[in-house]
Design brief:
The protein has helices at residues 14-23, 39-49, 58-62, 79-88, 103-116, 130-140, 175-191, 281-292, 303-320; strands at residues 5-10, 29-35, 53-55, 69-72, 92-96, 120-123, 147-155, 197-204, 210-219, 223-230, 238-243, 246-251, 258-263, 269-272. The protein starts with a strand and ends in a 14-residue tail after the last helix. Helices cover 32% and strands 26% of the residues.
């Protein structure tokens, strides 16, 4: 591995711009190349973010010998093919959440990464932010005793554009895969793995995707998670972890810069941890750390957890009757 991690970006859209901006404050990282389905699009992005090379195909980016790691920011249904292309070419992959559209695809990517001994990580940027690191530290210290109940919501109201990535079934649209994944991943962070049972209800809108979804998940020992997501309804974006001796509150949990710990019988403690950069930089730092240590997965969001998150969302989609075009295999049965 070179002293500086040389990044490529595959799929130069709005999220890719956030990542490229975050990369500018990452020590020992450079944006080396951009790949798009059209050369003009790649060149425009490369010019804006001062990348020295632009490629007019994903394959050309994957084959670039001057690239160590590739950030994949395509629409959801393209994640599996793009990530597989890069892994087979020996490039480390940071793939936007959700890792894939379903658990079967996620398992296929992990199998490739394992066979090739190449790094793969889901770009769950929330997991690496300073506030979430603090929350995990509180949990490790048993600051609230045993976590018993989690709640998290993420909903917003988008415009009614049937062809937008949020509402188009062909782009794996809907609330669950776009923002519900944050809530499912948050519960997985606290409780671990897949829930023992899931009960889900949703409103399927006129385009055929879930406009809002509510989920109750149960883990062993009676632990519960109450999760909700929406793309046509505004919600507060809050998360709570309630334990046997206290609670943790995280406002704006998916991009939080503060969290409050309340231990029973003691004054509340608020940790304020503003971002350095725009917040997307922390996951790039973790990728670099893992690459320099020769790892093929991050212990913070390992392969098994990304698969578990996808299995949970598969079960939610099975219950609400949401299946996307091109899904030939049955959704995972847990």
């Amino acid at each position: 591995m070179t002293a500086s991690i040389r990044w490529g970006i595959l799929g130069p859209g709005s999220i890719a711009k956030q990542f490229a901006t975050g990369l500018t404050v990452v020590p020992g990282a450079t944006l080396a190349a951009v790949g798009s389905r059209t050369l003009a699009s790649a060149q425009a992005f490369a010019t804006e973010f001062k990348a020295p090379r632009a490629h007019g195909s994903y394959a050309a980016l994957a084959a670039d010998p001057e690239v160590d790691a590739i950030y994949i920011a395509t629409p959801h249904p393209m994640h599996r093919a793009a990530a597989a292309l890069c892994l087979e070419a020996g490039k480390a992959v940071l793939c936007e959440k959700p890792l894939t559209v379903n658990a079967r695809e996620a398992e296929e990517l992990v199998a490739i990464a394992t066979r090739k001994r190449v790094f793969l990580m889901e770009a769950m940027w929330t997991r690496f932010q300073p506030v979430m690191c603090q929350v995990r530290e509180w949990l490790a210290q048993d600051a609230i005793g045993e976590p018993r109940m989690v709640s998290a919501d993420f909903g917003f109201r988008c415009g009614m554009d049937p062809k937008s990535r949020l509402l188009d079934p062909a782009l794996a649209g809907g609330a669950l895969l776009d923002v519900g994944v944050y809530t499912v991943a948050f519960a997985a962070m606290v409780f671990g793995g897949t829930p023992a049972t899931v009960m889900a209800q949703a409103h399927i809108g006129e385009t055929g995707v879930d406009e809002q979804t509510a989920v109750v998940g149960s883990w062993s020992g009676g632990r519960l998670a109450l999760l909700s997501c929406a793309v046509r309804t505004n919600t507060p974006h809050e998360a709570w972890i309630h334990g046997t001796t206290g609670r943790i509150h995280i406002p704006g949990f998916w991009h939080a810069q503060e969290a409050t710990l309340t231990r029973d019988g003691k004054p509340a403690e608020t940790a304020k941890l503003p971002f350095t950069g725009n917040g997307y930089n922390y996951q790039a730092i973790e990728v670099a750390r893992c690459l320099r240590e020769g790892l093929i997965e991050s212990p913070i969001i390992p392969h098994a957890e990304s698969i578990a998150i996808m299995k949970t969302m598969d079960e939610i989609r099975r219950q609400i009757g949401l299946r996307y075009p091109g899904e030939t295999a049955a959704l995972s049965a847990r």
